[in-house]
Each structure stands twice: as structure tokens, then as C-alpha cells.
Amino acid sequence: MTEKFENIEPNFNFTGKTALITGAAQGVGAAIAKLIHKGGGRVAITDIDEAGAVNLAETLDPTNTSTIGIKLDVREKDDFLAASNQVVKKWGKVDIVVNNAGYAKRTPVNDISADEFDSIVAINMRSVFFSCQHFAEHMKKNGYGRIINITSLAGQNGGTVASAHYSASKAGAIMLSKYFARYLAGTGVTVNAIAPGPISTAKQRLSSEQISAVENQVPVGRFMETSEIATTAALLASEQGGFFMGATLDMNGGLYLR
Hints:
Layout: E1 18-21, H1 27-38, E2 42-47, H2 50-60, E3 67-71, H3 77-91, E4 96-99, H4 114-142, E5 145-150, H5 154-157, H6 164-184, E6 189-196, H7 208-217, H8 226-237, E7 248-251
Parallel strand pairs: 1-2, 1-4, 2-3, 4-5, 5-6, 6-7
Helix pairs in contact: 1-8, 3-4, 4-6
């Protein structure tokens, strides 16, 4: 039986808070940016696609008073530093960071080269380290912060259709979330992860037969909507999320139970 989904927008208050979100020009990242902005937050929309980031920022706020679009290649540590400096110069601080940028490539395990393995790890795991490494110190000084890492079900169960390097990189991002949560415990800064299963945005890359196959595998009978993961990220990013620490919130419709 397929569960029917009704999108009821939650009401979070992010007034006075500044968020930086990676991979936010579209998809899940854009949904998170929109929800935080709707709650009164200032939002730095970062993406390797600078034009896309700037476009969304201007769509949310044509005056760019409460938004900014920034080019950020998560493979480059200097890009995190530059983006952070831009946001601090504009708004004084960064309160919330959502490490959402990621990349999946479904290469058969015996065909994965060393360069391809390193490339996937750089985007999905090393980027999380760079971000947490920098913003941990910034937030510690301010005595407040929320870091949310978007990982994957593949990082928990090894993946059903995901590749070896993707699964490994997402598992590493989950462990980094735990490490930095322990490192920052008691400072007013929390670090948590979200591990989504099949998301509706993936449908555009699948055939109707593949979509049906996934829906038949998921106990609730459907893909997750981007608004659902955005709501979960907003909870972790909010002041009400302060007792989550080092958690990985499972959002897989019952595909993986633990």
C-alpha cells in the first residue's frame, strides 16, 4: 500500500540566524534554503553552479538583503574559507551550515579507477571534513552553531543500487558527523547527519519500470519528497534541535531499520 503524501509546510523561526548551504542551487539544497529563508533566516546559497546559486538568491529576495549566491566548489578548502568570509562580511557570522553537495556515479566496482574513487570521496566526504573543520572553530567562538550533513542510506547499508565509492564516501561523512559532534560537545554547537533513501528528484534519471521497482521495495511505497528532507534539516538547524548530537536521522521509508 502506497502512503499518500500531503505537503504541509512547517513553521520554524530562523529570525536573526544566518545559514550557508552547499549544493543549494537546486533540488534538496534549494528546498532547505527556501524553508530557512521562509522562517526569517538569512541564507547563503552556495553551489559550483554560480549562476544557479545567484538566480535562486535573487528569486528569494530580489534586493539580496537576506540572501546571497556564492560559487563554492566543495573540493576546494579555500572555497569554504572564501565563502565564509563573504558571509561574515555581509552578516557578521554563520550560525547554520548544511553540507548538502554530493555526487553519485554508478560505476561497476571493477571499473572504478583510483582517480574516480578519489573524486567521489573528495566531493562527498572530504568536503564535509573541510566544512566542519572550518566552521567548527567559527561557531565555537560564537558559542552557537548547527551543522547538518546530508549523507545517504548507502552509507549505512552499503547501497542497493549505489556504487562502492559512493557508499564508502557517505559512510565516511556519517562518521565525520559523529567525530565533530563529540569534538564540539558542550560548546553550543551541534553536528548531525541525515541519511535519505530514494528521493523524488532521482525519478528524472529513471525509467518508469525502475521507478516502480523502487516504489515496490520501499515499505511506504513511494519516494521521499524534497520538502520532507528540508523539514528534517530545518529541525536540526533550529534552536529546538539542540539535543540532537551526533545523530544520523534515517529517512528511508522503512528500507533500513535499526
